[in-house]
Batch of 4 targets.
Target 1
Amino acid sequence: MTAPVSIRNATKIFGDFTALDDVSLEIAAGEFIVLLGPSGCGKTTLLSLLGGFLSPTSGTIEINGKDMGDVAPAKRPTTTMFQDYALFPHMSLRDNVAFGLKMRKVGKAERHAKAEELLDMVGLKTSANKKPHELSGGQRQRVALARALAVEPDVLLLDEPLGALDLKLRRQMQDELKAIQKRVGTTFVHVTHDQEEAMAIADRIVVMNAGRIEDVGSPESIYMQPKTLFSASFMGEVNFIPGTLESARENALTIKTPLGTVELPAFDHAGFTPDAPVTLAIRPEHFRASTGTGPRVTLGKAKVEDGSFFGTHHRAHLSPLDYPNMTITAHMPQSAIIEPGAWVELTLDPTSVVLLPGHPTQTAQEGVTS
Amino acid sequence: MISSRFSKLLSWSYLAALYGFIFLPVAVLVLFSFQDGRLPVPPFNGATLKWYGEVFSDSRLMSALTNSLMVAIGSATVACVLGFCAAYGLARFVLPASRLQRGLLIAPMTVSYLIIALGLLTTFNWLGVSLSLWTVGIGHVVINLPLCFAIIYASMGDHQKNIERAARDLGAAEWQVMTQVSAPMLMPSILAAFFLSVTFSWDEFIIAFLLSRFDVTLPVEIWSMLRSGLNPKTNAVGSVVFLVSVALLLILELIVFRRTAKK
């Protein structure tokens, strides 16, 4: 079972704190949506509104075209997978998974068969008689997933379900979660603050900050073409180079930066007015373009300050000749020899540079380090 | 070296004196319940089970024992159900003046049994309720409810709150959450409250004395036996009362500790 969700102008105010500020989002049936953002950004509040544990101060939530305004959590076509799993400690795994069906007055034989089928799907068929305290964290997590899916919800809400697992298990569970979602076809709304997790599992990522949606799109578009400074910095490492737009011609934009004047093709960056403050957002791996063919832009020479080897690449800190106070993070090829004090050319493919309105503030920069 | 040995000796003798002070009266009571003679006072003339035989063939004592058990189990059950409902309500919902309500629920603990018994006696007279085992049971619910509430309320944490939320999310109505999720999860503390209540009710004299008439509980029956003087039979029945209390506490330890150790 699956259904579309539509959130219209949802606002949630707690006292004088606005947790969610006029959020609208359309989710298609069967989509895997990830709400991504730092703690306090409103992503969990939005999930609670969908589950019915909170009601919006204003705005509406529709699931499958029906307004959920007065519908209690028990009556909604949603189930939630909680961060701490919230399994029933006194029940066997079979009874845990069958609980929702029991509440829907499904007969014992039928609900036990269904529970075992789901336990089989998550690889725990032989443990049906065990109690939750006999399981490892990853296994409990699977039971929580089976329990939430047993009632065939239209929408499954996942509240940082992988947060308590160690890194290796988390990556493995991400793959399983995605595979199971594709199999059952249910709409998944998943909350996380881990951008790698979001990219690994999402059909679409919703980047949230301070109660608002910053950016919505596929993992590729959010990473490669972020729409805001926050979105760019939250989705992994990025270099921000502030500048001003000098001229916008039909086929090229000229941007004046401390590192010289840069010319970018205009078709990507329409809608900017001359003299407006702008920022060039450049991912560290895009500095590798010093070899190869095609159009190139250069930001001048930079001195290597230090470097470390990350297996797939070298990560180096560079200080530009024209503006030594700025530190640029660049990923160099595996085979590169990184020597502090050496000079390199900052060469880029202009299509990989993202032009964003405004200048970075302290809060936008913090996303890089967190 | 000598001083350390001396201080060790001193601490051991303090321990012995302490336990002697607590348990010597009980030990004497139990010992003289086996007295082969008419008086439960030293010297000890040799062992006999005669007095136990008399206790178990005394129909008045046996019916008092049955009454005691009925009152204890009945009042403990009611106190636990009410205590659980009150704790659930106060722990899970935002209620007006909840701090005051918690205080009022626990307040009877600070009132002496004599005052509670007098208050209930006046109330029953005023309402025209005649005294019986029912009124004794009501009195015992009054004294045990604060205890049950306090024990069960203390064990209701936020972790269980989330589990209850999951149950509601899966379609459980409020009464189903209470009976199928909260109560089983809190069973160790509910059982602790139950067995403590049974023990308190089983031993209680003042309320049982003032609120009963023809059918009486065991402590009241023993008291009326004592008025006709000391007798090894009173020691024997006292030993039985003690043994039942010990058994109840052992059950409590076994059930509650075995359950909590598993988690």
Target 2
Amino acid sequence: MSTLVTCKELTKAYGKMTALNRVSLEIESGHIIGLLGPNGSGKTTFIKLLNGLLTPTSGELYIKKLPVGIESKKIISYLPDQTYLNMNNTVKEVMDYFGAFYADFEPERAYKMLESLQIDPKARLKTMSKGTKEKVQLILVMSRRAELYVLDEPIAGVDPATRDYILHTILTNYEPDASVLISTHLISDIENILDQVIFLKEGQVCLQASVDDIRMQHQKSIDALFREVFKC
Amino acid sequence: MESTQNKKPTADKWHLTSDRPVFIQIMEKLKLDIVTGKYLPGDKLPSVRDLANEASVNPNTMQRAFSELEREGLVYTQRTNGRFITEDTDLIDLLKQKMAFDSISQFLKSMRQLGFSGEETLQLLKEALKEETA
């Protein structure tokens, strides 16, 4: 067990608007962690900072004791909330692209998952439904042997049966010493596979705890606790 | 606060509810499997990872359930070989008794809530049993 992510007083402001306000936390290896919070609570900002798509306004952020950069991108597999793939490409082309980009990409695993979801590798992305595109992206991301998977809303656009498949894919495709950070609003679908949650509220961490401890202490589900903490 | 329906684990499927700790529910399910003979004394348990995948839960949670069962003596680890069900059949009988008493006390509690006295409950139970065997 080692520390994958360390942040101290991490702050990101967009002009006058502070999206992330002095967040200090650590993410250890070997966990599946839910990053939960209402719209605008700073989830995606935090994720973008982890992936070097944004630079902090102040504070410190380290991935395995190193600053965010080329080395950290090698070990983080990131599923963004929006697609960046070229829609004119076929699935096979984006697979090749990923293989060229990431040394830890394992095409065999990707093709196996495509097969079990009956996705044709020769199909072009633009001919696919929104849900199928999301599946392809998740397959790409989960086929890397990364140390940290960062998934921004991985199950938002897919039907419940596919959701189960995706959760199963996440559960069976990460190495025991890797961690998975999942941001989502669909808490009840996902809470049984989480072992920790981080609640973000107005850019600050208001809770980081083990799922079973929360259930024991509050005698309710994470979903129910969320609804209570963030009641509008 | 919570209904008692759908909460009892059945012998072959994982029914996990979200308002109670997952590891406790897993323990209950495995205990039921031990008591009902799905796992026999001395049987080897599947690996944490395999069982976690089967139940669609986090491996850490499964690990915690296993550790707790080990602490209660129902499961033991043989270094490098894996985990096995205890061969202490007295302990398993004791567990079965305890689970029976838990069920009964829940039943009695709901009968009391319905307003039946112990005597009336016993009478009704006898009638129900007679009907079932008839």
Target 3
Amino acid sequence: MAGAPILSVRDLTTSFRVDGEWKSVVRKASFDVGAGETVAIVGESGSGKSVTSLSIMRLLDPASSRIEGEVMLSGRDLLSLSEKEMRAVRGNEVSMIFQEPMTSLNPIFTIGRQISEVLTRHKGLSAQEARAETVRLLEKVRIPNASSRFDDYPHQFSGGMRQRVMIAMALASRPKLLIADEPTTALDVTIQGQILDLIKVLQEEEGMSVLFITHDMGVVAEIADRTIVMYRGEQVETGATEEIFHRGQHPYTRALLSAVPKLGSMENRPWPTRFPVVDMKTGLAAEPVEVAGTVAHGRTPLLVVRNLVTRFPVRSGLLSRQTGAVHAVENVSFDLHQGETLALVGESGCGKSTTGRSIMRLVEPAAGQIELDGYNVLRLDQVGLRAMRKSVQMIFQDPFSSLNPRMTVGAAIAEPFVKHKLGTTRQAKEKTADLLEKVGLSADMAKRYPHEFSGGQRQRVAIARALSLDPKLIVADESVSALDVSIKAQVCNLLLDLQQSLNLAFLFISHDMAVVERVSHRVAVMYLGEIVEIGPRAAVFDNPQHSYTRKLMAAVPVPDPARRGIRRGISNDELKSPVRGMDYLPPKREYREVSAGHLVQLG
Amino acid sequence: MPVYIGKRLLVAIPTLLIISIFVFSLQKLLPGDPILAMAGEERDPATLEFLRAKYHLNDPIILQYFAWLGGILVGDFGISLRTNQPVLELIGQKLPVTIQLAVMAMFFAMVIGIPIGILAAVKKNTWIDYVANIVALTGLSIPNFWLGIMLILLVSVKLGWLPASGYESIFVDPVRSLQTMVMPAFVLGNALAATLMRHTRSAMVGVMSADYIRTARAKGLSPREIILSHSFRNALLPVVTLLALLFGELLAGAVLTEQIFTIPGFGKMTVDAVFNRDYAVVQGIVLCTAVGFILMNLLADVAYVLLNPRLRATL
């Protein structure tokens, strides 16, 4: 780092008042951000990384929070400024972008107005000058047809484009420091790649410093010069990103790094492999264990899906006539054997979740054939459907919202068992206790309510509930996506354990290529409702054939600081929409067999 | 937008038909014979029979309904059994009075309720918020008639500032008209102000914790800009819907308020018509109110769409 730092934080301690008592959530954080430098703060939820950034901006509610220490910005202590002086700093010398591009823009104002507001506020530009400058900024963040989009509202932009608008707003006053708080976490992986590239390029063009908050080691490796690791409010390690990745000292740093799923880490491993478990005291990792030989090949597949089609009508006009349809799932076919994990991967809107729901008939497919454990799923009446659902259960992304907050977890786990009349109340209790032990919790936790559990524990509860009917197939819809890396690793290991002991089949729906590579036997890549490539995991990952598969894999940030310089070449590609007109006829698709069981769509 | 309004008006037709059936049967279900009421002391069966025949009261009920509905469609709401005036004409005389009262009351409600609601939300969980809530609860709890009488006693009888009752058309003598209406409008607006304040507060509290308000703060905007433009415009959306619903309360309140201040409006006419079993008038009033309600809701929905760019795009 050359010259005086732009931002110098010393002994930053932030406390919140909880029930009349002050509880510190960040303790004695001290770090510098040099001119033109990118510093990443990395940590899991509750580590205090976001609170650190909000403390620097003094955006926390002064009534319930207390910030101590020193935050020097070009020689001025921000913590000693009056609120009015601070307002002149915010959005001017330091600006910020946030995680949720969908909600961070005011829905009732045009994006042009929201950007030019910064210019009229801080730079004293007239409305007309601000408009011209705003268009220039929109061009700078590579929004196509910038001048015609000035008067558009946020809902007319996709998530990635909204994040570009946020960046344009943050850059408007040419700040010295940009704080980016998980700016790509809510975005699809190809869009994330675009935004990361954009931030890098703009940083060079503007010469500003960046403080980048993230939980994703892959993103850190790609963007940060230096890295600060935070753990439960403490700054446990600080150093050059390369040092941290290769010679990290603190056990937590090592635990974090070994828990990160790395794309390409599965070369020469034929079976799904558990994540290495790291001893938090020593930081040493145990050798990961493979899960071999669970797949029941040769027998009839547990699940056979043929030419599945699911569409949702799009209506408009005076009489709400159907004017088109979302072709969510289009001509999808695959098999799944007992003890096997098939991953459905793809980005938002590719139809992976709808496929999962269609199989359980949580949505009604328009056409196709589904055979599940001997049931002809699409022909079942209500009674048959109920019976069928004993064979297939689902685990969702958000364990908190999928558990009833007013029901003890014991009651939640026992409910399917009781409702299907599988035994007495006592048997249900025994079953619940047994399931809780099976998912790594203890039987006496049955009396507790969901809010008394951590995120990872809640997902274990959701898994226990799914298992209470002894299903043969589990549809796991982004089941580990919302979890912190270390928890994600544990829950993935649990799923693998359960597969081995209970011979379960998983339909593993995920956007996370690295996790998918780790846990699945076979992979199907979905794009706009269709499977574009399907095959054994090793074949698809080592020898991707379809251009979309390749694009998807290239976009995944890999936690390797050697990739610091990587540029994907800024593109403006947006995710395409599967909404089609009434006269749309799905084209006839041909598949080419690359190797045994590895099929790729032609055309 | 015209398509949207047209669609909404089409949807209103079945609603109005159902209301008309209800209104019509109400008359048939109510105890008391209008002919007896009309005939007064007369008890001669032939006369009563003559009257029944004259008003088609012996026809099958379905025919009576369609005859009645047909009349309404061409603007014939029947004749007041009491005054022998056409009902439509009666309503036409009284309605402007009540509209003036309602508009003024709504004005009071908004001027009091919305700013206090915003203030309470911004100063959430401070003494200002608590005081505002107490004031609002008090406003909600005080019955209209009590507040009306107390105001008359204080302002008119004791201080002699404003007339205690009476009415003057705003087109004839605007000053006098406003003088007579200020107190009743305040009384009527008072309870609405409290409801409005509570809803404005909760809408504002919700909006103030939104991500885009954090963005606005991170931009360095002043609290004034954040509250008035970024927050309030968003909080207005649910409040607008509420205003349409309050319109009903306003009419209900007008019945009492007009009685207390002896204002010759719609409300007073309603009370008189009910007590006199003047069915044609009651029916006309209920139908008019229903139409008013539907129009107010349509207006609220249109305002909602105009305020919300997301919905604007779908039209």
Target 4
Amino acid sequence: MTNFLLMRNEIILLVLILAMLILEVTTKPQHKKGLINVAIGLFLLHTILGFFPNEAGELFGGSFRTNGLIHFFKNVLNVGVLIILLQSADWLRDKVAVYNKIPEFFMLLFSSLLGMNYMISSGDFLMFYIGLELSTLPLVALVAYNSFSEKATEAAIKLILSAALASAVSLFGISMLYATGGSIFFEEIATNLQTSNLAILGMVFFFSGVAFKISLAPFHFWTADVYEGAPIGITSYLSVISKGAAVFVLMSILFTVLPALTEVWKNVVYVVAIATMFVGNLFALRQQNMKRFLAYSSIAQAGFMLMGIINAEELGIATVVFFLLVYVFSNLGAFGVVQAISSETGKENMDDYTGLYRTNPKLALTLLLALFSLAGIPPLAGFFGKFFLYAAAASKGYYLLVFLAVVNVTISLYYYLLPVRAMFLRKSEDAIPYFKNKVMMRAGLVLAVAGILVLGLYSPLYNYIVELSAGIL
Amino acid sequence: MDILTLFVVVPVLTAIALLFTKDLKQARMTTMIGMLIEFGMAINLIFAYFKERAVNTDIMVFRQDMMWFESFNIHYAIGVDGISVLMIVLTATVVLAGVFISWMIDDMPKEFFITLVILAAGVYGFFISLDLFTMFVFYEIAVIPMYLLIGIWGSGPREYAAMKLTLMLMGASALLLVGILGIYYNSTADGGALTFNILEISQVNIPFEAQKLFFPLTFIGFAVIGALFPFHTWSPDGHASAPTAVSMLHAGVLMKLGGYGIFRVAMYLLPEGTNYWSTFFIVLSVIGVIYGALAAIKQTDLKYINAYSSVSHLGMVIFALLMLNKTAWTGAILQSLSHGFMTALFFALIGMIYGRTHTRDATKMGGMLKVIPFISLIYVVAGLASLGLPGMSGFVAEMNIFAGAFQHTDTFHRVMSILVVSAIVVTAVYILRVVGMMLMGPVTNEEYHSLKDATWFERVGIYMLLIPVVGIGVAPLWLSNMILDSIKPFIEGVL
């Protein structure tokens, strides 16, 4: 008997989507604001349910598979989305409720998350592709959620065009892999695939398609504009959840489906990692808008993630997953503060943050911790994440790559210190005045800060991830 | 809890307690209590160390070892030998003195003291670590608060100085990180398990090719914070802009992390790399010694004079370490200690003078000995210690260094040693020049007559630093024995 409970996570998410649909119809317009709390409450429940362990297994003849690591990563995504929802609650209440578009927001967001879940659970390229599309299309609508803003519309069009191109490119690559591997099932491709020019070409196309989603250089051009135009909650979703899921999937496909091409894709990953780090960091240096700033910073972070992938062994899996976990909390800490300030004052530029510590010390401190964690400064979680990635790359003798990465860390430290300089070192007459955050926003920020402070120092967590990744290959 | 971990825990607790303080009075009292406990523990550690040493002949005593990240074999491994004990005492003294000197800090006192004690926690952790990973973590914890300390409470081009210092030191730590990983992955060379533990790695014969590659990375990584020429440029700007207590702590303690790391990690773990690269780095260190001294002559800003003087003195530490013999190494450690106390004293005095006259330009002042005799007198004493007058700490240290250096009989080492010795003369020039210009002569500004001499808390700070400066000079033997004991296993490892 097929055990559909393996899809527990997805089923609950689907129920949530349908529940939102029903609530949308049955709730009176004046009560729709209340749906924000209902939806977040339901999602909190879903997140908690996710922590109950799930078995490993397959469904639909291997199209859908799950194991401890995949289940763990779904939990990471859930927690990330929960934080994003908490941080976006004010924005929804103040800006979106007016247009009566509350339930749709949750439906679209949950659908996208559902797509991610299917994507990382996929056991063949068909399921992978369905998941990819399901995760992307709702996102386009979400990016354009503020439909009166030209920037948002422009961002949505940019996103859908590049996403369409990306999926076309990766489909092309998948068809070539199918041609050489003779199957769309991951396991069969892994056993059948031989090194051939066609297979390599297929791998490169597939890689490029996914690279769009992770915004690796040179496929990153859409990133900054889309991040700037989208509502901040969606920007953080794009930079954390969407990117994290894509990195995870890229890693598992490279490791488990294309081991025959390891020596080839290692070279690709090597070059792309270096390019991505340098592009992200050098462009971030001169950004004034905080969203663009974080956009380029997150491009650079993706370059670091590739350093774990290049390890091509279980150590690589563990370090990448751990880094993604840390990255979720660090980046959401930073985006949360930007969100809080933006929804209170509408200000998004770095100069507006001048003197913030003297008026809003807690927010400034949160941003400081988040940026230091992104920069990789101990004892914050980001340091451990980065160090393990370096160790993963160095264990294969990629010392030059590690060296270039640490050069990049030094460059990145410069721009991560710029907001710190504005907030702490400078004084301003017209600093953003003191304001009190709402409960939900505060909860979102506290969760992020707790993660930043604890995840690294608390070693059992990393050990747990190591255990989960053992035996995957 | 063991007595070493407490050194990290107490500052952290102090920082947490500081979060609940309301004003300057509460903040400084809290910090003072915390740092007094720390100081007491440091003094106690000396006695405990001697007691333990009598029955325990291990390289490191009071060892603790806890698994941290199992898959990487990262441990929280701590332990001390005589050198770390002395460094801890130095740190405790300078930090406590720094608290007294910052008694009247008015802008955001709570945040100032929190950042200061976090920095101290990093330094203590660094000195007790036996695990490269833990050591690196503490190193960075000690460096990053400098950005805020200089940036927020500094003067002059503080933003520029803070950014430059942070980027250079963090850039150096980036090199160090590559070096550490290189050492880590070569620790299996003899077939053992991967390890970050310094004592275990020292037993491994790391292949020569790897030593050649990773020695300069590790060495430079530490040498930047030890202000080795040409990586010293952060130091004058940083010191000049930093608030007094931070200058003290930075020149007095943080820069010692460089020399300590060089001999504990770079040289001890990579002995063949040391021999291969020593000529190159000796030349750099000698340039640093002479360049620093000459640059100090040209400066008129008191802080710049001292900063360049630090470049010169610490260049001597690195030079001594590269001489690779017991006498020179003893000298290097003594020089680190002596320079630590003496420079901290100098920066404290400069801070007091600046606080009164609102200038640090030596040419604009005169006759200070008449108006603030106590501060001026101590300034002369510190200056004499700096130029190596017998009876002061500087003399003992430099004597050891030169005696060690002249044990090498080949032309290269001889020439280099002579060059370094000649720098002492230059030191005398810039010290005495300032003393003459600023302290002697007629009072140049009428307003100076109304200046008040040191207050009680300033005097406490001064005495805390002055006593060791004179103490090391007068009774150096027990110290050098303590150092010599601890150096033995290390120097044998390198040779």
